[in-house]
Amino acid sequence: MSKIFKPLVIFILLAYLLIPLIITIIYSFSSSWTFSVLPDSLTLKWYIQLFSDPEFLMAIARTVFLATVTVVLSLAVIVPTIFAIAIYFPKLMKYINLIIIFCYSLPGVISVMSLSEAYNSIGVPKMILLFGSYVVGTLPLMTLGTTNSLRSINAKELIESAEILGASKLESFTKIILPNISNGVISSALFIFSGLFAEYVTVNLLLGGKFTTIQIYLREQLTANGHYSSAIVVTYFTLATLFTVIALVLVNRKRVKKI
Questions:
Q1: Which of 68, 136, 138, 140 fits as disulfide partner to 74, beta carbons 3.0 to 4.6 Å?
Q2: Residue 146 and residue 75 share a domain
Q3: Average pLDDT value for the chain
Q4: Contact by Cβ (8 Å): 192, 66
C-alpha cells in the first residue's frame, strides 16, 4: 500500500503545482480561449507586444538594477562581516541570529513605514532606504551561505595556518578564504537575485508606482488583458528559474568537488 501511496501523493502535489503553470503558459500563447477546451489558435502576438513595450523593458531594467546593486552591497558588507564574526568574534553570532529572526518576523509594511518615519525628516533619499532595507533582508540567506561555506573548508584552521606563514588577515581573507567559499556565496547571491524579482511591497511603498518594476508592471496589467499578463508571468518565471538553476548548478558543482 505504501508503495502506491507515496508516488500517488507526489503525483498529486506535482499536478497541483504544475497544472496552473502549464495552463498559464498555454494561455500566454493563445489568441483566444473562452468557450472551448483548447485554445482557438496559438500566437506569439502577446510576446511580441510585450517585448515591444518600452515600459516593460524599463521595468525589467529597473528590477535587474535593484537586484544587482542589492546583491553587490550584500556581498561587500555581509560576507566580510559574517567572516569576521564567525572567525574572530564567534560569541557575537547569537546577535546575528537574533537579527535574522527579526528579518523573518517583522512584516514588510511595518518595516517600510518605520524607515520612512525615521529617515524622511533628515532627508535621506528613499532609494538609499530601499537598498538598505533590501540588504538587511538578504542577511538570512547570505549568512547561511557564508557560514556553511566557512564550515565546509574549516576556515579557522586555514586562517591560522596562513597567519603563521606570514599572511595578514586581509590577505588571508581575500586570497585564501574568498576563493574557497566563492561557490557557496555566489549561489546564495543568485538565489537572492531571483528572489528580488518577486519583491513588490517595499519598492511600491517607498518609491511608488512611478518606479515601475516587473512586479508593479504585472499588477498594472492584470486587469487589462489576461493573455498579456500571462506572457508577463511566463517571462518572469523563466528569468527567475534561470537564476535558480544557475545557483543549483553551482551548489552541486561544489558538492562534487568536495567529494
A1: 138
A2: yes
A3: 84
A4: no
Cell of 215: 512586479
Is beta strand 30-32 parallel, antiparallel or unpaired with respect to 41-42?
antiparallel
Residues 6+ apart with CB under 8 A from 256: none
C-alpha count within 13 angstroms, C-beta hemisphere, residue 249: 7
Residue 32 and residue 41 in contact, taking contact as beta carbons nearer than 8 Å: yes
**pLDDT, tens digit, 9 for 90 and up, residues 40-64:** 788 888 899 888 989 989 988 998 8
Nearest-CA neighbor of 222 among 211, 206, 236, 233? 233
Phi, psi of 41 (to 5 degrees): -160, 165
Question: Is 48 a domain residue?
Answer: no
User: How many angstroms from the chain centroid is the CA of residue 180?
Assistant: 23
CA–CA distance from 54 to each of 50, 57, 131 (Å)?
A: 9, 5, 25
Are residues 241 and 143 part of one domain?
yes
Q: Using one digit for the tens of pLDDT, what is the confidence trace for 199-255? A: 888 888 888 777 888 888 888 887 777 888 888 889 888 888 887 787 777 666 655
**How many structural domains comprise the chain?**
2
Q: Which domain holds residue 34?
A: 1-43
* In-domain check, residue 49: no
